[in-house]
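for the writeup, i need someone to sanity check this before i put it in the appendix. the sequnce is what the collaborator sent (i think, or maybe the updated version? ugh). structure was predicted straight from it, no edits. if anything looks off just tell me and ill rerun, i have time this weekend
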Amino acid sequence: MAKTPPPKGFAEAPLRIYEVPSGQVSGRIYLGRYPEPLGYGKTPNRFSDPRRRRKPANRFGVLYLGETVKVCFLEAVLRDQRDGTIGDQPSGMSELYDRHYAEIEIANPLAMVDLRDDGAIVMGVPTDVAKASTQTLARAWSLAFYDHKDEPDGITYPSRLNGHTSLAVFDRAIRKLRVRQKMQLIGAPGLASVLDDLKVALVDS
């Protein structure tokens, strides 16, 4: 498949925008050593700013949220650990005690580039971007979205792991979020069912 970069003139092209309404709640899993649930870094990740030669202050940051505890756990903790395994997947208890879970409320509506369903196709965005199978390509398109004349707040996309909706919120829109509550991941509502569904067996570590 051709790794198609954003074409010339994309900044003026129409975007498929989904408005995330105020009051909607998403989740985030983060390491407990970082006290701020809405904090973010600028290290390479799925939709990060690809301009590595720029000073960090001149690159945009991205905050990731998930619509369910399950997708948060898959994206932040389990990832590809189950690939090629049969039976229960062992996971150290420290994985759950060292991480926190926060419920993040949308305080003001978010205008998100929508890569779900046929959104990417309508905009001419390669399907590899939604799947993030090529991170270099995903980052190039993320920059194109960030620089678009409509100034979207981020990207909404299906998780490559289970298809649940995830949000990549650009740093300029984090002011539209607020923390409802935070806790150790071990106490996250619904986590026990997630571990059971994904056949994750907790072991002492």
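Residues 135-146 form the longest helix (12 residues). Helices lie at 69-78, 93-97, 119-123, 127-131, 135-146, 191-197.
thx in advance!!
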